[in-house]
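INFO  loader      accepted 1 record
INFO  loader      residues=97
INFO  predictor   begin
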Amino acid sequence: MATRYLTKIGVLSLGKIFGVIYAIMGLIAGAIFSLMSLGMGSAMGNEGAFAGMLFGVGAIITVPIFYGIMGFVGGILTALIYNVVTGFIGGLEIEVE
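INFO  predictor   done
INFO  writer      dumping tokens
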């Protein structure tokens, strides 16, 4: 096994990876919000059911997009900060075979 050091991360590469991961998490969160709003809306009668359905569909669409954008921005910031810090203290030690 050879020990190597990760000294630089591709900024856009990490941004894309974080964006996709966070979008998937947003899809899961949006599905949970959707189910909760549908359940609560149906408990309030016809008007509540329509509002619950509208909010539920909106959550399935908007939450993954919002999470994906925030993950992309967070990934870019993380890579930039990592690259600056490794210039001062060195890289992350990893073992490869």
